[in-house]
Write a structure and sequence with these properties.
Blueprint (H helix, E strand, L loop, with lengths): L9 E2 L4 E2 L4 H11 L3 E6 L2 E7 H10 L8 H4 L1 E2 L3 E3 L4 H11 L3 E6 L2 E7 H9 L3
Parallel strand pairs: 2-3, 6-7
Antiparallel strand pairs: 1-8, 3-4, 4-5, 7-8
């Protein structure tokens, strides 16, 4: 069995522009039933926005929906190459207590691997 992360990631993940408002990102996440969105600025991956990030901003600013994604996202997300071993990636996620990593093919975003993807994999084990 190939243990490259590309075999277990969510391929071609939906992304959000850094210039979009949080209201748009929140609506997109709800519609797609996802909790993480890679953030692009001029086609470059600059961050990741989680539903938790939105909720944190919401608790601080009642007018949170007007804030841009760039203002709320976590910059410099953890990025791994598509041929990295999934076990090593999971260990790193556990160590850093993060819910997602961006999967790259050199400099291009090709996938996202989340805790939900890990749980899906575990549920299929015999």
């Amino acid at each position: 069995m190939e243990y490259n992360i590309e075999n277990f990631m969510t391929k071609s993940p939906r992304t959000v522009s850094a210039y979009q408002k949080l209201a748009y990102a929140e609506s997109l996440m709800e519609d797609l039933k996802i909790r993480h969105l890679p953030v692009l600025k001029d086609d470059e991956l600059i961050g990741v926005l989680s539903l938790r990030d939105i909720r944190l901003v919401q608790g601080i600013d009642s007018d949170y929906k007007k804030i841009t994604v760039e203002e709320a996202c976590v910059e410099d997300p953890i990025m791994v190459q598509k041929d990295e071993d999934i076990r090593a990636v999971c260990k790193e996620m556990l160590k850093k207590k993060i819910g997602s990593v961006m999967v790259m093919n050199k400099e291009k975003l090709v996938g996202i691997f989340t805790l939900i993807d890990a749980l899906s994999l575990i549920s299929k084990l015999k």
